């Protein structure tokens, strides 16, 4: 979902370059330098307004997190939260998710989160879906051997496509739910995004999966 332009976004980003990286070069393998501690690193590709990633970082101080978005307006909203919170284990990244293997080193990341990604429903746009095989190849490259991919969506078509795509790529599923909010075990640790909170209240079912690559 494309957000409206935020006139203040560019200035806020330029004033807080200690909290956000803008199309960084030569950062592969060096992301830990931007954090207070060297800890397992997790990234969210497409962070929206930042509710999920900021709460995740607050609840898990033993991990480091990167909120990533290609939209300046979106990442600026996450930055606004982080300027107030100043979480030592959260960094932001303004960059395209299609370039992950150019931004992160091999085996540098412990987990990748995809939350309510654009479904790109038209067949001709299949290659833009974040669970398309070229994206899976990049996740496999940056993830550690015990790393995982976690995916949530309310779009049934995208979820079914993703199950097939991950399976065809040879990934193994750790958890699958077609109704996350009514799954007591999985929902007990679930952190909602703004979008998820809004649409689940309207009765939309939330689909969820967690999977890993076989070594």
From TrEMBL:
Similarity comment: Belongs to the class I-like SAM-binding methyltransferase superfamily. TrmB family.
EC number annotated for this UniProt entry: 2.1.1.33
InterPro entries assigned: SAM-dependent_MTases_sf, tRNA_(Gua-N-7)_MeTrfase_Trmb, tRNA_methyltr_TrmB_bact
Start and end residues of each stretch annotated as Interaction with RNA: 124-129
Protein name stated in the entry: tRNA (guanine-N(7)-)-methyltransferase
Binding site for S-adenosyl-L-methionine: 44, 69, 96, 118
GO molecular function: tRNA (guanine(46)-N7)-methyltransferase activity
Top-level taxon in the UniProt lineage: Bacteria
Reactions this protein catalyses: guanosine(46) in tRNA + S-adenosyl-L-methionine = N(7)-methylguanosine(46) in tRNA + S-adenosyl-L-homocysteine
GO cellular component, as recorded: tRNA methyltransferase complex
One family name in Pfam for this protein: Methyltransf_4
Origin organism lineage: Bacteria, Bacillati, Bacillota, Bacilli, Lactobacillales
Positions with a binding annotation for substrate: 122, 154, 193-196
Positions of transmembrane segments: none
Keywords, ordered alphabetically: Methyltransferase, S-adenosyl-L-methionine, Transferase, tRNA processing
Function: Catalyzes the formation of N(7)-methylguanine at position 46 (m7G46) in tRNA.
Top EC class, one word: transferase
Pathway per the UniProt entry: tRNA modification; N(7)-methylguanine-tRNA biosynthesis
